[in-house]
Amino acid sequence: MTLGLSPQAWKRIHKLALFLITAFAVIITVVPLIWMVINSLQTSNDITLGRVQFTNLRWINFRDMWINVKFATYFKNSIIICGFTTLVAGFFATMAGYAMARYRFKGSDSYSYGTMATQMIPGMMFLLPIYMTFMWIKETIGLPMLNTYWGMIIVYTAFYTPMSIWIMRGFFATIPKEVEEAALIDGCSPFGAFLKVVLPLATPGLIATGVYIFLTAWDELLFAWVLNTNTNAATVPVGIRLYVGQFQNRYDLLMAAATISTLPVLITFFVSQKYFISGMTAGSVKG
């Protein structure tokens, strides 16, 4: 049933429907961010009463936010932990993803399925075992794991490596094997071909994996909250959480902290947007 409409008319309706759906998705995504920024420049009383004023914007909220809870410490901790997690998990994902895409070895299928099966287990179920393991390590060999950078880096690396492996595997699978074979004929070793030929071609996948790891680690709260009992290695989400109840629910400072913590996420995504999208969709054609 065509309702008497021509194919061209149906195409226009289809495009209009897609435009409206996309516009709706953009609006519901962007409006909360805009509202967050606006509220970061209001007084706590105005936010509580639902008032918005633009005549006396409180830029001082950002200064107060930075001082009251030592937000600079949390920001530094997040940069260090998320940065090293990105490097370590990205390295493991690159090596394992390449092996899964190029080689068939005994147990390769079981390894592949087992890697993805780990993503089906709720992360909360690991919380108590990890905490108890960290306590056991401290009591047994004297190595502190709680309230440390390396403790958080180990946890985040373990969590984000499996999905990163599959992102890299899908991307390596799109690179023709003939490229490596040509490099081998020209005298490269297998590792040399991987390092000099495959990795440069896999740059979009590497960036996509790095962005995924960094942004996911940046937003994580549960483990950062439980595995840190002081500010030594507590991250930005923990710092934001402290504004709830500790300072009489200072919503103005909470919004300012949320705005500051969102900036690295937005900058990272927009700078690497092209590579991120191409890397995340690489495995959809050939895998």
Break the fold down into its secondary structure elements and pairings.
Blueprint: H1 7-39, H2 44-49, H3 60-68, H4 71-102, H5 108-117, H6 127-141, H7 149-172, H8 177-185, H9 190-201, H10 203-219, H11 222-226, H12 236-241, H13 251-271, H14 273-280
Helix pairs in contact: 1-13, 3-13, 4-7, 4-10, 7-10, 8-9, 10-14
Describe what is shown at a glance:
The protein contains 14 helices and no strands.
Describe the structure in your own words:
By secondary structure, the protein is mainly α. It has a single domain, classed as MetI-like fold (Orthogonal Bundle). Helix content is 72%, strand content 0%. α3 (60-68) packs across α13 (251-271). It is globular, with a radius of gyration of 24 Å. Mean pLDDT is 83; it is low at 283-287.
Please tally the β strands and state the result: 0
The overall number of domains is: 1
Low-confidence stretches: 283-287
Helix content estimate: over 70%
* Second rung of CATH, namely the architecture: Orthogonal Bundle
SSE topology string: HHHHHHHHHHHHHH
- What would you give as the CATH superfamily? MetI-like
Q: From the alpha-carbon coordinates, what is the Rg to the nearest angstrom?
A: 24 Å
Count helical runs. Answer: 14
* Class derived from helix and strand content: mainly alpha
Morphology call? globular
Assigned CATH class: Mainly Alpha
Beta-strand percentage range: under 5%
Mean model confidence by pLDDT: 83
Question: In this structure, how is the largest beta sheet organized?
Answer: none
Distance between the termini: 39 Å
CATH topology value: MetI-like fold
